[in-house]
Design a protein that fits this description.
alpha+beta, BirA Bifunctional Protein, domain 2, 3-stranded mixed beta sheet
Length: about 220
């Protein structure tokens, strides 16, 4: 099995986390690091994917700035998303040439890792048919997903709602879909961040056939 490392960046603004991602992407392309999963929690930020429609930001920029919400353009796929406190963001920096050179299979694998994690908490979740990415509980999105692939190395990833203030999603049309948004807390499940990280990392390791044992000690050192 291939090596695997998991790093918790803690609370970090989007631009700083993007710099870390780019650094790991270049190292992964050069074979200097193994497949790496970065976890982070962002301060309030709205991100725009390559296909984003400005009209999907429903509040004015001055109003959002007053609330402490920044707006960032990204090179990931997808439309408009929100990140903030209480949300667990995962950035897998994986070399797909060592797994499957299949972008859709990669997206589905990320979704399955989230679905398995939620199932461990008794939350029945799934995906929607068609081209819509992400994980849903009923018709409410609980996890958004958007990626970028360069020379088969991935970046960006998924954002799982643990217990964010869901009112912030009212300022956007999440992912361009007029659907409700939910969280683990809204489903009656108080989830501890470190435990969810461990479960997600384990499920991703299983799906991508990575050696989870190589990162257990690292996780235990950094997580409560």
């Amino acid at each position: 099995m291939r090596n695997f490392q998991v790093i918790d960046l803690g609370r970090l603004d989007w631009q700083s986390a993007w710099s870390v991602q780019r650094e790991f992407v270049e190292k992964r392309k050069a074979g200097l690091v193994p497949d790496t999963l970065l976890f982070v929690e962002h301060p309030h930020v709205i991100t725009l994917g390559r296909n984003a429609q400005e009209s999907n930001i429903l509040a004015g920029r001055e109003f959002l700035t007053g609330l402490g919400v920044s707006i960032e353009e990204t090179n990931r796929g997808g439309d408009v998303t929100y990140h903030g406190p209480g949300q667990l963001v995962g950035y897998p920096i994986f070399d797909l040439s060592e797994w499957k050179k299949d972008v859709r299979a990669f997206v589905q694998a990320l979704e399955q890792a989230v679905i398995r994690t939620l199932a461990g908490y008794g939350i029945e979740a799934g995906t929607r048919e068609g081209k819509e990415t992400g994980v849903y509980v009923g018709n409410a999105k609980i996890c958004a997903l958007g990626i970028h692939i360069s020379r088969w190395v991935s970046c960006h990833g998924f954002a799982l709602n643990l217990n964010p203030d869901l009112r912030y999603f009212e300022y956007i049309v999440p992912c361009g879909l007029t659907l409700p948004v939910t969280s683990m807390a809204a489903q009656g499940v108080p989830a501890e961040r470190g435990e969810v990280m461990r479960m997600l990392a384990r499920h991703l390791a299983e799906i991508f056939e990575l050696d989870y044992s190589t990162c257990i000690e690292q996780l235990e050192e950094t997580l409560p």
